[in-house]
Amino acid sequence: MKDALRAWLTLARAPKLGGATVRKLVQQFGSVEALVAAPASRLQQAGLKPAACEAIAKPQHLDADLEWLAGNASRHALTPDDPGYPARLKDIASPPMVLWVIGDPEVLSLPQIAMVGSRNPSPQGRENASAFAASFARQGLTVISGLAMGIDGAAHQGALDGGGLTIAVCGTGLDRVYPARHRDLAHAIAAEGALVSEFGPGMGPLAENFPRRNRIISGLSLGTLVVEAALKSGSLITARQAMEQGREVFAIPGSIHNPMARGCHKLIRDGAKLVETANDVLEELAPQIQQQGLTLSPQQNSAEQSAQSGANQADDDDYTALLGALGDAPSSIDQLVERSGLTTPEVSSMLLMLELEGRVAAAPGGGFMAVHTGSGTT
Fold first, then answer.
1. Contact, 36 vs 11, CB < 8 A?
2. How many angstroms separate the Cα of 244 from the Cα of each of 18, 93, 115?
3. What is the 3-state secondary structure (H, E, C) of 122-163?
């Protein structure tokens, strides 16, 4: 395994050498070790450029990469030969030759939902990202995103606040955090999930690397949810790649006056599934989760624990006051503020969370009503 790891690390650093090409070459040469041990003349006959042959013959970063891996037990390098390499990534057109990980590599094989969107979202978009992610996390679905400012960061933080797992796919080497202001968030993600990159230590924030990492975000997930995006947005690239990979694509609609909603509206016109609650996504993904033999976290997935989660939330004084203020007839936010004694921002935020969990419904003419499910589940 050590020889195979060294070989994969060597190939990952070779210029202009993609995962699809390497996969074919490994089949041709019989093993990854045989590939890197082959003479330059044979490699060139197989179609490799002289620069790639030189990089394979004289790997410059190998010792530093191995030293970085050995520096901390939470650091890992998954290769296609590794049983822990995520099966879903092997299905995409150009799987990473090496998947660098800080954290728990086992989370990469759990059921995941990708959440992406604008780096400059509206306040409502940021709140939606956080609330949807928290709801997914509580129900056992791992949230994956790209650690960028805006929607990405809100999704990661929402999943952590929901007590769940989250994965950040980075566009740099994992020896640095980009953007730097997400350093604390990155540390929290590594402790409760994983930081992932196909770029080795030392790789800085090059512009061309961020679109490349998007295929990993969509490839690891069962589906991609676009929260808010302009018409020209990297999030739409991720959504397109998800469609090409046979993954589900979801989009949250917004106001026709919000330019950050136009990308989502375009996706919906092109066939993405319109979603209004986290349950809309979970219901759509449930058959895939079962078919692929995956399971949500038992603690979060059982009806008994789900009911208990709702009960715990209802026991909170503020939620108890708000739920008590709701009735079968629609109530406006002003009425709920007056009845509950809470502030308008508190009521608005709590209503969004309860609506995502299916405990509150928006009335057609405005206002909100309590939802009676009968089973107590969300």
1. yes
2. 18, 9, 17
3. CHHHHHHHHHHHHHHHHCCCEEEECCCCCHHHHHHHHHHHCC
List Cβ<8 Å contacts ≥24 apart for 303-310: 303/375, 303/377, 306/139, 306/377, 306/378, 307/375, 307/376, 307/377, 309/138, 309/378, 310/357, 310/359, 310/376, 310/377, 310/378
CA-CA distance, 45 to 40, in Å (whole number)?
Answer: 9
Which class is domain 105-291?
alpha beta
Question: Is the domain 302-370 a CATH 3.60.15.10 member?
Answer: no
Q: How far apart are CA 132 and CA 224, in angstroms?
A: 13
- Measured CA distances, 330 to 277, 300, 318 (Å): 19, 31, 20
Rounded Cα gap, residues 363 and 165, in angstroms: 33
| DSSP for 238-266, written as a single string | HHHHHHHTT-EEEE----TT-GGGHHHHH
pLDDT tens sequence across 26-45 = 999 999 999 999 999 999 99
pTM above the 0.85 mark? Answer: no
Task: Show the tokens assigned to 181.
Answer: 């202001």
Q: What is the DSSP letter of 360?
A: E
